[in-house]
Amino acid sequence: MIVDAHYHLEERIETVDRLLGQMDLHGIDRVALMPALNDPFTFGGFVEKLSGLGRWALKGGWRGLGMYLYRSMVAEDGRFVILNKSYPIYDEPDNESVARVMQAHPDRFYGWIVVNPKVANPITEVERWVGRPGWVGVKIHPSLHRYPVATADDVAAYCNENGLPLMVHLGGDRERGDYRYLPDRYPNLKIVYAHAGVPFWEELWNYVREMDNVFIDLSGQYLDDPLRLKAVKVLGAEKCLYGTDGPYGFPDADGSYDHGRILNEILNWPVPEVDKKRILGGNFKEITGT
């Protein structure tokens, strides 16, 4: 079974009907949805080149520049910034939009409950949905929502007590990017660092590689094929999950999202088939209990 562990429901870019068609085309059995977190945007060719520059810098070419570029994507006034364009960030994500799609297609979609402890009680929002069919865990975004990882302590404790995995998209400063806080405080909490732990990558991988409860997903344009494969080699296939971060980035020939881009990278890797199966869906099922 192939499961995309990281996809944003954004019908202003990709409708559910097209998403279902692409899933069928590429043999993707299920997609784990999360609500949109900002106004829709698309990546052009120049932005792809800029992403490559940021990736090179973060990998060690010029790390200070890479961190600056990463942090500059989120303005303190609550906007997501790409070059000279900015897009409002949604501080209260619409989990109900995901619930409606899961209810309409229960055999194709899972859902992550996205919460923002900066503006509301996250436990109230989690309890609104947890236990209903399809919901697999909780997602927090210290980067876009602009808060220290420690601010999410209550929801992390709740997930720990109730056996829910927690997906985390780290920020780029010391507090918002504190990847040590949750694993140290909750050694049994299943944590998935989004985008292979951007912007820390190898630093984070080396820190968590012996922790049985910490994983990464391989989604998004933050990464390229060699960096994804390197993450697998450092951490092991058992700690990596296939995901896309669609429908953002990786346009296909008609400008829509290319669901085959990351999937085909993984399928073509020189790794054992059993490892590919774990990455493409087996790990997700084990982590989420689905």
Describe this structure in words.
With 290 residues, the chain is an alpha/beta fold. It has one domain: TIM Barrel. It has 11 helices and 11 strands. The chain has helices spanning 16-26, 45-61, 63-71, 95-104, 122-129, 153-162, 181-185, 202-208, 225-235, 260-267, 273-288, and strands at residues 3-9, 30-35, 74-75, 79-82, 85-88, 109-114, 135-140, 166-168, 191-193, 214-217, 240-241. The strands form 2 sheets. It has an 8-stranded parallel beta sheet, with helices on both faces. A 3-stranded antiparallel beta sheet has the order 3-4-5, with no helix packed on it. Helix 2 crosses helix 3. It is globular.
Secondary structure layout:
Blueprint: E1 3-9, H1 16-26, E2 30-35, H2 45-61, H3 63-71, E3 74-75, E4 79-82, E5 85-88, H4 95-104, E6 109-114, H5 122-129, E7 135-140, H6 153-162, E8 166-168, H7 181-185, E9 191-193, H8 202-208, E10 214-217, H9 225-235, E11 240-241, H10 260-267, H11 273-288
Parallel strand pairs: 1-2, 2-6, 6-7, 7-8, 8-9, 9-10, 10-11
Antiparallel strand pairs: 3-4, 4-5
Helix pairs in contact: 2-3
